Amino acid sequence: MKSRITVLAAVICLTSFLYAQEVSLPDTYRAISLGMDLETVQEQLKKDGIFGYRGERDVSLLHSANRSLIETMGPSFISRSWFQFHQENLYVMIFKLDTTRIDYYSMYTALVKKYGEPSILDPRKALWTDERITLTLERPLTVKYVDMTVFSELTEADTSERAVSDILREEFIRGF
Fold this sequence. Notes:
- A hairpin with a 3-residue loop joins strand 8 (125-129) and strand 9 (133-138).
- This protein has a domain at 25-147: CATH 3.40.33.10.
- The chain contains 4 helices and 10 strands; from the N terminus they run αββαββββαββββα.
- The chain is of the alpha+beta class.
- The chain has helices spanning 2-20, 38-47, 104-115, 148-174, and strands spanning 28-29, 32-33, 59-61, 67-72, 78-86, 89-97, 120-121, 125-129, 133-138, 142-147.
- The N and C termini lie far apart (86 Å).
- It is 39% helix and 28% strand.
- The chain is globular and about 60 Å long.
């Protein structure tokens, strides 16, 4: 009887330990990592044909200051991809997958097996998150990697800019 209780206690402790060891979310897809500078990402894209990178013509400057975008059209499983930069560093990777070659359920199953159940699950998306990264699988079939530190900073800055804009707007209206 004592040996059964000991074995049961050991199994419970081991199970608790395994569940406590959370798998951290990836910040890298193939050889491209969040935080890389624009030039390094371009070099990696040139080396990997899955993205269909055509060089400088795939790079755009966004309307906001210090933001750039690389947009590619791949010939295979990735039909399109977007790489967003802030201050020359990659903070968002978005991959639109070819639904004729791969399906949502297969991707969802693979991600659950690798990272566990998503933090948020609804009919439109499954979202895994930790303190550094958010990984999202959206319907019909898009995968997003987001650097949460940079994204939070940009969101806070945008909110502050809007607050100042709202105050100026109200003062302008009151002037009449």
